[in-house]
Structures are given as structure tokens and as C-alpha cells.
Design goal:
Strand content: 5-15%
Structural class: alpha/beta
Largest sheet: 4 strands, mixed
Shape: globular
Length: 150
């Protein structure tokens, strides 16, 4: 049993450490977690101390629920664009872009868009040459445009 307590203590420390970047993942779980007040408050509180906040796919719904996308343009998975517009009228839902870059806040469409967004983050922090080399190493095409593929 002590091992469990040690793991719990380490997780508790990690949950309270300062972060530079927070990436909120999407998926089916977001439909339930959007009503998880503790999680939404944790994201909202963390966002005040971040250099960058990002979401992949429907992770944007968690950011929206936290009020972190109010007045901003944002995107999500193409199947959830209408739901995003209906649920969060204060968000300008971007339907044509794969990644929406609002400075310190980035949102991306589906899974491949999350990779594109990650490469954009690498380019922002380390330059385009490093981002292109990263894409090549991954055997992934560097995104030359930001047009939504679907």
C-alpha cells in the first residue's frame, strides 16, 4: 500500500506544478468532462499562469466551458463545429482553418491537425527549420497551408 500513497503524492505534486504549456486533448471523454467542475476550474486556474494554452480536437470544448475562448476564434473536429457554435455563442467558430492561432491560445481540428499545431509550436519556439526537420523525422508532411483538409 505505501507505493500507492507515494504515487498519489507524486501526482498531487505534478498537478500543482507551474506549467509553461498546457495541451488539452479531445475525444469522446470531453462530452462528460465538460461538466466536471473540478477539471474546468483546474484548467481555468492553470491558464492564468501559462505561456501557451492549446487544444486538440474537442478539447476546445473544455477551454470553451472554462470561458478561455470567449471572444476568440477557435476550431474543433469538423463533426463538432455546429455543436461548438451552438454551445458557445461567444466563440467565433472557424470552419476553414486546420489550426487557429490566437497568440497564446491555439486550437486545432482533429488528430492530424493536432500534429500540425504541435509543429507550429515547435516553429514558434525553435524556428521553422527545426519544425521542418521534426516533421521530416516523423515522416510527416510539413503543413504548407492551414486550410482544413475536410
Amino acid at each position: 500500500m505505501p507505493l500507492g500513497h507515494e504515487v498519489a503524492a507524486e501526482v498531487a505534486k505534478l498537478l500543482h506544478r507551474p506549467l509553461d504549456v498546457l495541451v488539452v486533448a479531445g475525444g469522446l471523454g470531453t462530452r462528460v468532462q465538460v461538466d466536471n467542475a473540478r477539471l474546468i476550474e483546474w484548467i481555468r486556474e492553470r491558464a492564468t499562469h501559462l505561456r501557451m494554452l492549446a487544444s486538440v480536437c474537442t478539447g476546445s470544448f473544455l477551454l470553451g466551458q472554462a470561458g478561455l475562448l470567449d471572444g476568440l476564434s477557435a476550431t474543433t473536429h469538423w463533426r463538432s463545429l455546429d455543436r461548438m457554435a451552438q454551445t458557445f455563442p461567444s466563440i467565433r467558430v472557424e470552419r476553414a482553418q486546420h489550426v487557429v492561432d490566437e497568440g497564446p491560445v491555439l486550437t486545432s481540428a482533429g488528430i492530424s491537425a493536432g500534429i500540425d499545431m504541435a509543429l507550429r509550436v515547435v516553429a514558434r519556439h525553435h524556428g521553422e527549420a527545426v519544425a521542418r526537420a521534426t516533421a521530416r523525422h516523423m515522416e510527416y508532411p510539413y503543413p504548407e497551408t492551414n486550410v482544413r483538409r475536410i
